[in-house]
Specification:
Elements: E1 13-16, E2 29-31, H1 43-58, E3 64-69, E4 76-82, H2 88-105, E5 112-115, E6 119-124, E7 137-142, H3 150-169, E8 175-181, E9 189-196, H4 202-220, E10 226-230, E11 233-238
Parallel strand pairs: 1-7
Antiparallel strand pairs: 2-5, 3-4, 4-6, 5-6, 7-10, 8-9, 9-11, 10-11
Helix pairs in contact: 1-2, 3-4
Amino acid sequence: MFFSKPIPLFLLSISLLCSCTVGTDDPLYHICFSPENFTSSSPYRNNLNDLLGILSTKVPPTGFGTGSSGSGQDVVYGLGLCRGDVKSDDCKTCVVDAGQELQARCPTSKGAIIWYDNCLLKYSDKNFFGKIDNKNKFHLLNVQDVDMDFMEFYQKIKDLLGVLAEKASGTPILYASGDEKLNKTSRQTLFGLAQCTRDLTAADCKTCLDHAISDLPSCCYGKRGGRTVGASCNVRYELYPFVNV
């Protein structure tokens, strides 16, 4: 589900069946969030093109990068982040695709963001580096209910993601994934992920992740899988492995 117009600043819930998967070429979502526009012949357009080229080179080696291009009212700031387990070549492909797709979906907006499974890309005429973005985010969920007590399951999610949030915020790459058995006799395993953009401090990363975890009950309570996907951080849980190990 996609929207071509700027989205009001509220959380969006998107339902996915358990059997659904998202291809590497398919964006999860995008938002054209800036009320300011530019023309195709403006310096901002050229600066944006330069910035996207910078990010496509800067992001893949480590999975994260920031950059800027231009000056004054035509300056553009950008950020790219790949999921912590994504290889450099796949990261580069995702960032390049994200830049092209975002320009097609938000052709005149001075601020926009797009998410894929493997990466996110954001740019703006405002310097947003080092600031938690609580406005641009959404939810994904599995519409199937879990086959155990909902409260017990949510506590397991909260415990696992809480551990991963603590771990992620204490690492240089601000990323962690892990799993745990639902109980001693269960054959089911709960898998989780927590990640922040690396322009945040460790403390801000932890704050962002804690808020993302606290958002999950409003969209995904009792569901077999769910995510809070934001511009500064994201958390995810599933009953199947979804990261490369």
